[in-house]
Design a protein that fits this description.
This protein is of the alpha/beta class. Helix content is 44%, strand content 17%. It contains 16 helices and 13 strands. Strands 3-4-5-6-2-1-7 form a seven-stranded mixed beta sheet. A six-stranded mixed beta sheet has the order 9-10-8-11-12-13, with helices on both faces. The longest helix is centred in the middle third of the chain and has 23 residues, at 163-185.
């Protein structure tokens, strides 16, 4: 749970990933009214360095009780309001690793700071008007971006390219509401309301809402990626395909059937889309207990996948076992991969089921991988995504709010068509305005903030 408190408390957290024996720099961040006081208690600077905002100081971090030197470090000062949170922000730039940053953080807590909760720095930035809610979510998306395109989309959101059109739509709804309410309060003093003008305005807003809604699938795809499972009989070249595709030896390859006993994962990027590739154990009936477990996991991976690469042996051709596997996975989007085509093709390949996407490969020689990637892009209609404007893409929360706004606006249009009084118009107009305001955070409730910021890392 995120406790919304921005006044009084000074918070502290480690703001960089900490890995044993790795990382050259570790940062401990403070935000709040006591930040500068705590920094002066812990940081000692040689010479006559000025403690001015947006300056970096060199010195030593000392334990106030023992005067023991904890680390040689840099101190970055960012005083309010010119900081990320619009509060005084101090950063200790220590040596990387676990011990130095943990010791510095502990000293900050001993001097009165409180350990920051997940996302609390960004939450304070939002509550203090430094950023809006779409920008806050874009920060989390940028940190978690798994491809350059996902990063580009997050940066666009951080620059306000989503918030700006949403605010414009909300302002136009507010203008219409003001016109309607004016007729309710001062009907005798104002000219009649031009209903055609109102209907035209609503239709324009609805059209733009639908345009933004259309970016939801693209946004989800760039953020969460695609899960692709390589399935098939044992020894058809599934592991070789994974190794060739990922340009690594992630999977063990032998001539023995049943070598792969578990699901092997690899993370790739295809056409800007993050791809999680799952090399599964060969699906067959077996008495081997361990292999049985692997086969069952393969079935589960296939059920959870967004796309199936059903792999068969070109020389052996389409077998009864291939048909059985096909029956298991045919309801999922599927690409048939005919591997080992260099060894010749069986006549049974002429009797294949009607599968739209077929790719021929020689995985052991890295042949056919580009064709496979193009087939994957085509299967997820990637051409439309690539041509689209990456400056605009919404997440699931924003999509839900936009759908509510769309429904409310449609209900306004229906109310007008049914010639109901102006009071009925305002009910749904207010609902649309509230839903649009929830996207940018102009109208938001505490439980929504808790849900958003609890997903952040502690130091952000």
């Amino acid at each position: 749970m995120v406790e919304i408190v921005t006044s009084g408390d000074t918070i502290a957290a480690i703001a960089t990933a900490i890995v044993p024996q790795q990382g050259s720099i570790g940062i401990v961040r403070l935000s709040g009214s006591e930040s500068l006081i705590i920094a002066r208690q812990l940081f000692h600077t040689p010479g006559k360095q000025k403690w001015d905002s947006h300056h970096i100081l060199y010195g030593y971090i000392l334990d106030p009780q023992t005067q023991q030197v904890i680390d040689e470090a840099l101190l970055l000062l960012m005083l309010a309001p010119r900081s990320y949170t619009r509060e005084d922000v101090i950063e200790f730039h220590c040596h990387g690793g676990i011990i130095p940053v943990q010791q510095v953080l502990q000293l900050c807590l001993e001097q009165g700071a409180k350990l920051a909760q997940p996302g609390e720095f960004t939450l304070r930035a939002f509550l203090n008007g430094r950023i809006d809610l779409t920008q806050a979510e874009s920060i989390a998306q940028l940190v978690g971006a798994r491809s350059p395109q996902a990063s580009q989309m997050a940066v666009a959101g951080l620059q306000g390219k989503l918030a700006h059109p949403i605010r414009q739509l909300r302002d136009r709804c507010l203008d219409i509401l003001a016109e309607v309410e004016a007729r309710i309060d001062f009907e005798d003093d104002l000219p009649s309301l031009d209903q055609n003008l109102i209907i035209g305005g609503l239709q324009g807003i609805l059209g733009e809402v639908q345009t933004i809604l259309a970016t939801a699938d693209r946004g989800e795809l760039l953020q969460t990626g695609l899960k692709v499972a390589i399935v098939g009989r044992p020894n058809v070249g599934k592991s070789s395909l994974l190794n060739a595709w990922s340009r690594s030896d992630r999977a063990i390859v032998t001539d023995l059937p049943g070598t792969t006993r578990d699901v092997v994962e690899s993370q790739l990027v295809v056409g800007g889309i993050p791809i999680q590739v799952l090399d599964t154990a060969g699906i067959r009936d077996t008495v081997d207990t361990v292999e049985k477990i692997g086969v069952e996991r393969s079935r589960h991976a296939a059920e959870q996948a967004d796309l199936i690469l059903l792999t068969i042996d070109a020389q052996i051709g389409w077998t009864k076992e291939d048909e059985e596997i096909y029956q298991l996975v045919q309801d999922c989007p599927l690409i048939l991969v005919i591997n080992k085509v260099d060894l010749g093709c069986s006549d049974s390949l002429q009797l294949l089921p009607e599968i739209q996407q077929i790719v021929k490969t020689v995985a052991s020689q890295n042949q056919g991988i580009e064709d496979l990637e193009q087939a994957i892009l085509a299967s997820i209609k990637m051409k439309n995504i690539e041509a689209a404007n990456l400056d605009l893409a919404i997440n699931q929360r924003q999509k839900e709010a936009l759908i509510r706004a769309k429904i409310a606006l449609e209900q306004v249009a229906e109310t007008i068509a049914n010639q109901l009084p102006f009071d009925f118009w305002t009910i749904d107009l207010r609902s649309a305005i509230q839903a649009l305001g929830e996207i940018t955070g102009e109208e938001i409730i505490e439980s929504v903030l808790e849900r958003i910021f609890s997903k952040f890392c502690i130091g952000k």
